[in-house]
Specification:
The protein is mainly alpha-helical. 51% of the residues lie in helices and 11% in strands. The chain has a domain at 40-109. The protein has helices at residues 2-15, 32-67, 74-79, and strands at 93-98, 103-108. The protein has a two-stranded antiparallel ribbon. The longest helix has 36 residues, at 32-67. The chain is elongated. It starts with a helix and ends with a strand.
């Protein structure tokens, strides 16, 4: 009888020791303000990157509409005053520009 109770207890412990990767991380009330500030900072950086890319794309489109061609490089946008100063891409990324199509994207280095 004792042996079967031990086996049931051990089986229950083993069944309950699964990997719980699907659960969201538990919130800690002490670190919640810091976690929030970190999340806001990360969201701000992402928004700035998106805005930078959108603004440069607008300048490319304006150049194309005025000059009837795409700029040969992103530097030509600033040289011709369509975009005063090109934004600096985030660390670990760079702008990829295709002068044939006018396509602009942000890619990891």
């Amino acid at each position: 009888m004792k042996l079967s109770l031990c086996m049931v207890a051990v089986a229950g412990l083993i069944a309950g020791c699964g990997d719980k990767k699907d659960e969201p991380p538990k919130s800690n009330l002490l670190t919640a303000p810091v976690d929030y500030v970190g999340a806001v900072g990360k969201a701000k950086k992402t928004a700035e990157r998106v805005v930078d890319v959108v603004e440069v794309r607008k300048a490319i489109e304006l150049f194309h509409a005025s000059e009837d061609r795409f700029p040969t490089s992103l530097k030509e946008l600033s040289d011709t005053k369509y975009f005063p100063t090109l934004p600096t891409p985030p660390r670990g990324a760079k702008f990829f520009y295709d002068p044939k199509t006018g396509a602009l994207s942000l890619v990891k280095e």
